[in-house]
Structures are given as structure tokens and as C-alpha cells.
Write a structure and sequence with these properties.
Elements lengths: L7 E3 L11 E7 L2 E5 L8 E3 L1 H5 L7 E6 L2 E7 L10 E4 L10 H19 L11 E2 L6 E2 L6 E2 L4 E9 L4 E5 L10 E4 L6 H13 L2 E13 L4 E12 L11 E5 L13 H23 L10
Parallel strand pairs: 2-6, 11-15
Antiparallel strand pairs: 1-5, 2-3, 2-4, 3-7, 5-6, 8-9, 9-10, 11-13, 12-16, 14-15
Bound molecules: zinc ion (ZN).
Length: 294
């Protein structure tokens, strides 16, 4: 089976996996247990008995990737990592696992986090019970139902045409990125984009446009990407969230976030657009030979 070309189908309690080999997503507190050396990582595919013995509780059945059942489980912290397995942070596995496996691992991490944090009712403190048909937890005492959290946060690429605004947080080394911020209760995404930009840099925006989204399982964010054009103000960072922000052109970009993130994808798309604009401008003023002139 070619795992790269398969789709994931969700399953919810009380579904059970079909007997036979399964794809195991076993997490310790430091990351995902995987097989193989760096650069050739793979999730464990196999029968349940040996892997299940390493896990703290029964695995969660998440669904099927193609036809193979996918199971998420917490590694027993009292055990040593077995021979042939290594613990790797999810971020470090980007590009090594297939895209389908990487997305699935993020989902598994979120569902395990949900199980660890949803055992008691937030209203009355009673033990909760699983519900049929979703990952909600029902309190049999007071009837409260809680669902897995998804926390929206915006990513904001601010430009003024030829220049891109990049910001630096304390502790980031030499790396710069676009702006980001959590959505507040009662706030639209557009209001969040404008407020975060004003709070963090003192700049006003116009021409907001939605770009795309990315689940970010650390522990349960949903990143929503926007581009916006500078509309006024001088850069003033707060010194806490950000210690520096500056305009950059494609010729003088600083160190950027790793390719795993939507913020990097948005920056790369902006760079590609800028290079296309500058190539087309050079063509128009005759600096480059036209492809038609040969
Ligand atoms: Zn309750």
C-alpha cells in the first residue's frame, strides 16, 4: 500500500479497529516514538501486543489511513525506550514522515492531550465518560459536555509593496518571522489581525486577505494566515512580546522560520511574488532579454 497516496478517515468512540497490523503513534512527554535512523524515520506498523505493552493506557483508535487502522497511545514513562526506537519531537520529523503521516501524528498528539486533560468535569469535578460519535466527554453527574479544544490564532504578513515586516521575539536567536496572535473571545479574525498588529508594532493595516490555515498541535492551535498592506504608523515594539521589528526586502532577508510552518509558507509565497514582479519590471525596461526576442 502506498501510504503517501492514501486518505485519512476519522473514527470516533465506540468504534474499534479491525484486527491485524496497525499504524502506531506512541508519544512520550518528549515526542513521538519512531523506528529507524534520522532521515529514514517511520511510524511503527505492526501487531498490537508488543507495542501495547509499552503504553500507559489502552490506545485511542483514530481512524484509518487507507485501510490501515491508526492508534494513538501514551508511552509508559517508567519504561526505557526499546531497542530500535527513538523519541523525536514532532517538529523535527517534518519532511521525514509522509505528509499524511505527519498530519496524523499532529492529530494523535492533540487527541492524547485531550484524553489527559478531560477526565474530570470542569463544572462539578465528577469523572467524565466518553460519548458515542465524537470525542466529547459527558459528565454523568451534571450533564456538562466538553469537546476537544481548538484555539484560533492569526498569522499576519504585513507588507508595503516591496517590503515585508518581520519581527523578533526575545529568545529567538537570529530568527525573524511574521506577526502572530491569539484570537480573543468575542473578536472576529479581522479585528484580531488589526489589534495584534497595532499592539505589537503600532502599525495600521488595510487590504486584509485570508491566505490559508494550518493545525498546530502545540497543544491545540489552529493557525489562520492573513496578508495585509501597511496603512500608516511608525514601528514601535512593546519590548515584551517583541523586542524588534523591521522592514525587509527580498535582498536582505534575515533568518526565517523552518519550512514546517504556515508562516514560512506565507513568507516564501511573498518572496516568489516579489521576484516575479521584479523580473517583469526588468523585462519592461529592457534589462533582461525577452523570451520572445530569441
Ligand atoms: Zn459535572
Amino acid at each position: 500500500m502506498d501510504i503517501l497516496s492514501t486518505t485519512f478517515t476519522h473514527a470516533f468512540p465506540p468504534a474499534h479497529p479491525a484486527p491485524g497490523p496497525a499504524l502506531w503513534l506512541v508519544f512520550s512527554k518528549d515526542g513521538l516514538l519512531i523506528r529507524g535512523a534520522e532521515g529514514q524515520s517511520s511510524l511503527h506498523r505492526g501487531g498490537s501486543s508488543t507495542v501495547e505493552a509499552l503504553c500507559l493506557r489502552a490506545p485511542l483508535y483514530l481512524g484509518t489511513l487507507g485501510s490501515i487502522p491508526c492508534l494513538a497511545a501514551d508511552f509508559d514513562p517508567d519504561l526505557d525506550v526499546p531497542e530500535g526506537w527513538v523519541v523525536r519531537s514532532l517538529r523535527s520529523l517534518y519532511g521525514e514522515l509522509s505528509e499524511a503521516e505527519y498530519t496524523l501524528a499532529g492529530y494523535a498528539q492533540q487527541m492524547l492531550y485531550w484524553r489527559r486533560t478531560s477526565g474530570f468535569c470542569p463544572v462539578c469535578g465528577h469523572h467524565t465518560e466518553p460519548r458515542d460519535g465524537d470525542w466529547g466527554r459527558l459528565c454523568p453527574e451534571c450533564g456538562h459536555i466538553a469537546y476537544p479544544h481548538v484555539t484560533p490564532a492569526t498569522l499576519i504578513l504585513v507588507h508595503d509593496g516591496p517590503r515585508l515586516l518581520l519581527a523578533h521575539k526575545p529568545g529567538w536567536g537570529n530568527r525573524y518571522s511574521i506577526l502572530a496572535g491569539f484570537v480573543e473571545s468575542g473578536e472576529s479574525l479581522e479585528e484580531c489581525v488589526r489589534r495584534e498588529t497595532m499592539e505589537e508594532t503600532g502599525l495600521k493595516l488595510t487590504d486584509l486577505a485570508y491566505v490559508g490555515s494550518q493545525p498546530w498541535p502545540y497543544p491545540h492551535q489552529l493557525m489562520l494566515g492573513f496578508t495585509a498592506r501597511y496603512a500608516g504608523g511608525d514601528i514601535q515594539v512593546d519590548g515584551v512580546e517583541l523586542d524588534h521589528a523591521e522592514w525587509f526586502t527580498v535582498e536582505n532577508l534575515p533568518e526565517l522560520p523552518p519550512p514546517v510552518s504556515l508562516s514560512r509558507t506565507m513568507i516564501d509565497e511573498w518572496i516568489t511574488r516579489q521576484l516575479a514582479i521584479s523580473a517583469s519590471a526588468q523585462l519592461q525596461i529592457g534589462l533582461l532579454p525577452s523570451p520572445m526576442s530569441a
